[in-house]
Amino acid sequence: MTETIKRPLVAIAFHSGYGHTAVLAEGVKRGAEKAGAEVAHIPVDAITDEDWQRLDAADAIIFGSPTYMGGASSAFHAFAEATSGRYLTSVWADKIAAGFTNSASKSGDKLYTLNFMAALAAQHHMIWVGLGLPPGWNALTASEDDLNRLGFWIGAGASTPQDGGTDTVNASDIATAEHLGARVARQADIQIAGRNSLAHR
Ligand SMILES: Cc1cc2nc3c(=O)[nH]c(=O)nc-3n(C[C@H](O)[C@H](O)[C@H](O)COP(=O)(O)O)c2cc1C
């Protein structure tokens, strides 16, 4: 008899002050859905009780924030601090985690934001999944249109002109965000299948 294995639930917990990071969150969502996951799309500055339940039920949580003043936004930090009750009870232990950020400058100190997300995940005993792409745009033969054009490993990093609208979010950054969503959905799938397999040993 073939067993039906549940689709992974991937939650995207993100903040976007002016809409640019939200465009990337949509990319992450598309990638995860294309890879077969159910997605809970959660803007953390308007989080509801139902959203918290979805986060607790999720197999994976992908964190997203703009980089403001060299770190995650205050709204994302407020969300992170509000998870402290869950930290105390290890409710999120062994969920898969990943992160993405966006800022105006090509570097813009985005790595601090991704590192903060990885530390947040570690404090919850989550399992951090990196971007899983080689760095793009770093050779004479390379192009700005490469996936992972800004060369991050720990998560997805995007750069959007500070004076541009949401329609100026870079296409390869959006594709990189889609890749992250698909990768996390796949890893969640593998984790669920592995747990099922161990249960039958
Ligand atoms: C308060 C504030 C601080 C910022 N700090 C940085 C920064 O440290 N590095 C950077 O490259 N861009 C910085 N930016 C630019 C934003 O990261 C950029 O405009 C981003 O696209 C905003 O994303 P959002 O529309 O999702 O809020 C800052 C913007 C604001 C409003």
Automatic annotation (TrEMBL):
GO molecular function: FMN binding; NAD(P)H dehydrogenase (quinone) activity
InterPro entries: Flavodoxin/NO_synth, Flavoprotein-like_sf, FMN_Rdtase-like_dom
Signal peptide: none
A cellular component term, taken from the record's GO annotations: membrane
Segments traversing the membrane: none
Any matching Pfam family: FMN_red
Lineage: superkingdom: Bacteria
Record-annotated Flavodoxin-like domain positions: 10-158
Protein name per its UniProtKB record: FMN reductase
Species name: Streptomyces olivochromogenes
